[in-house]
Design a protein that fits this description.
Length: 133
């Protein structure tokens, strides 16, 4: 399998090892993302994670222990416990992952934030590409 971190990437005159090369190149589209959401219970977080993995929308989802979120909602400052879910995905799967989260999530306005992966292990990113293709 071709190294997904090198797709559309010019030759590397720096001599960096493949695992140290950036997975994104200025002017080129992002190929891998981490996508985060939060939800108000661990069972709901597990359902979101499992649905995304079963649907091939992410290769991995990590659920973090409860975090305390403080935010303004409907003109009031709220404090609540939430569980963060961090999805590892390929950029072409983002639209479908976002649509799934918007449908499966029970918040009126769920947090869905995507961050580009700028570097990563070639083997890990190849696995992400395979699981989300």
């Amino acid at each position: 399998m071709a190294d997904p971190t090198l797709q559309n990437e010019p030759s590397d005159p720096s001599g960096l090892a493949e695992s140290a090369r950036p997975s994104d190149v200025p002017g080129q589209p992002t190929r891998f993302l981490t996508v985060m959401t939060t939800i108000d219970s661990e069972p709901k977080a597990e359902r979101l994670a499992r649905g995304a993995i079963e649907g091939g929308l992410a290769a991995c989802a990590q659920i973090s222990a409860p975090v305390t979120s403080v935010f303004r909602w409907e003109n009031a400052v709220e404090t609540t416990q939430e569980w963060q879910v961090l999805f590892k995905t390929a950029a072409p799967a983002y639209e479908a992952l976002e649509a799934y989260l918007l449908t499966a999530h029970d918040y009126d306005t769920p947090e869905i934030i995507a961050t580009p992966v700028t570097r990563g292990s070639a083997e890990y990113l190849a696995w992400v590409a395979k699981e989300t293709s």
